[in-house]
Amino acid sequence: TLLYTIKFEMALSTMSLLPLTLLLLASSLSSVAGDIAPCPGDTRGDKRCNFDRTHRVCAKIGLPDTSFWYATGQQRIKWCGTRGRYRGEYGRDMRCPLEEPTWCICKWATARWIAHQGCEDDVQFDCEATDVCDLKMSYMDAGHDLAPAHECMQKKCAVQWDACPSPEEKQDALKHRPCNS
Asked: Residue 30 and residue 40: Cα distance in Å, rounded?
């Protein structure tokens, strides 16, 4: 919070309100994203689920009996247990192998999987490696309503969910900040 306040006060003297709003949102998201643990079975980049706008959920999809592939319409392209061609240190490693069956999945795929399967025990997330705050602030992804993902994530990753500000809290914080003329 102190970092945001310092950035905010520094920004007040040099920026208009719109860039300031973007600065606050970007700094809060990047700070949260920086705290995300690696998703063990993912082989892209630094293994963190924050490399693009949609792959934000670290889920166990490499298990043999998962319904993920069918529920998301990806049964023909199961990539777990195969080698990718990504750049970086882990790019040629086995993707979501049985010993580390996690992968950074899309927010839309998370919602669709849960809508199909329910928030059952076999739908598993690595909460420390999921960008829970990004998911909480998102309502649609690739045309899919994220409500099922919200309900399940709030239950399964309650500590992380509760630590994230609500969209209303973010808006209120922006409205109630003092402005120097």
From this structure: 21
Residue type, 88: G
Identify the three-state secondary structure at position 99. coil
CB 96 within 8 A of CB 102: yes
Q: 3-state SS string over 155-181?
A: HHCHHHHHHCCCHHHHHHHHHCCCCCC
pLDDT, position 167: 76
pLDDT at 165 exceeding the cut of 70: yes
Residue ranges of alpha helices (H) inside the chain are 2-12, 17-34, 68-71, 107-117, 132-137, 147-156, 158-163, 167-175
Nearest C-alpha neighbor of 135 from the set 156, 112, 113, 164: 164
What's the rounded Cα separation, in Å, for the pair 114 and 178? 42
Query: From CA 34, how far away is CA 25, in angstroms rounded?
Result: 14
Q: Which residue has the tokens 């990047």?
A: 30
